[in-house]
Amino acid sequence: MDAGAITISRDVLAAKSKSFAMAAKLLPASCRDAIAVVYAWCRRVDDAIDLAPQHERPLALARLQTELDCVYAGKPVNDPVVDAFAEVVRAFRIPRHYPEELVEGMAMDVARTRYATIDELLLYCYRVAGVVGLMLCHVMGVTDPRALRNAAHLGIAMQLTNVCRDVDEDLRDGRLYLPIDSAADRLEGRECRRATCTPADRPTMIRTVERLLDEADRYYRSADRGLLALSFRCALSVRAARLVYSAIGARLRRRRCDPFGHRAHVSTFAKLVLVFFAFVLSVLELPRRIVRRRRPTAPDRVLGFPNDVIPV
After folding, report:
1. Residue 216, C-beta contacts closer than 8 angstroms, at least 6 positions apart
2. Are 195 and 116 in contact (CB under 8 A)?
3. How far is Cα 238 from Cα 21, in angstroms, rounded to an integer?
4. Please, what is the end-to-end C-alpha distance for the chain in angstroms?
5. Is 27 helix (H, G, I), strand (E, B) or coil?
6. Residue 78 contacts by C-beta under 8 Å, 6 or more apart in sequence?
7. Distances from the Cα of 207 to the Cαs of 75, 248, 308, in angstroms?
8. Could you point out which of 168, 172, 249, 255 has its C-alpha 20 to 30 Å from the C-alpha of 139?
């Protein structure tokens, strides 16, 4: 890959996500740069929609779809991140379905989709985060197709955590991802009857955040079961990122799941402690890793939502 594209990708990772940037330092050199490129491309897709004025977002979405056509047709677009991503796609045989689903997730944002049920929200989480985990499986050399589902679950868990953490910020931007109604059983499947929600709906929103954090924890536990399919260094990095993200949910719980006020975050010192804890857990896992046989080829299976992903 072009050295300039790698530098840009590393800079994007460092600037946009300190948690992922810290975890990425634990990755083996053989896949670190390719993972940075995948992250930079995913962030570029997200920013293309989020940072565009509302009236320009449909056009931005169309450009993303055209760029993806070029990526899989082998046509350069003269953007270092997009062209580097195309090289990663070819080198690691990333199925088009995954980045295509990510762009579809952005289309849901452009349409300002409201989520009446947990299943609808899970589709969004799969598209904007679950498929990122699936793309990284190809880069990290996952050889057990059973672990693909666990990787998708980690992305879903992280996005559910994001949804709970960012309620206040999203409301200020005119967005609401919580599947909410006047009752706490909003996750049981009834339709949402509100066109808009404000902080005045705080009690219901708090109950919904608690239920979503419970849902995220189930997906985190599933993700843990797939770590043995990764190499030691990749598993260490993924586990560190997982622990840092789930710690955000733990901080929300300590605030009784109230998403309003200051944004829940994990301090640098706490992140370092969690990285050390990830290392200890990974070392304790070594005996199981040694006896586990790794398959010689990457899985060709492509996971679709919901049948291949849900339930946990």
Report:
1. 156, 157, 158, 160, 161, 164, 246, 249
2. no
3. 11
4. 37
5. coil
6. none
7. 49, 17, 29
8. 249
Residue 78 — left, alpha, or beta (φ > 0 → left; ψ -120 to 50 → alpha)?
A: left
The CB density around residue 280, as the number of other CB atoms within 10 Å, is: 9
Q: Cα–Cα distance between 309 and 303 in angstroms, integer?
A: 7
Scanning the structure block, which residue is given the tokens 């890793």?
289
Q: Where are the alpha helices (DSSP H) in the chain?
A: 3-16, 18-24, 29-50, 57-73, 80-92, 97-110, 118-125, 131-140, 146-165, 167-172, 202-224, 232-254, 268-284, 286-291
Q: What is the pTM (predicted TM-score) of this model?
A: 0.91
Distance of CA 79 to CAs 71, 90, 219, Å? Answer: 11, 17, 35
Q: State the pLDDT at residue 18.
A: 82
pLDDT tens by residue, 59-114: 999 999 999 999 999 999 999 999 999 999 999 999 999 999 999 999 999 998 88
Closest to 248 in 3D by CA, of 24, 50, 19: 19
* Chain position carrying tokens 């890959």: 1
The domain over range 3-291 is classified in CATH as 3.90.1150.10: no
**Per-domain boundaries in the chain:** 3-291
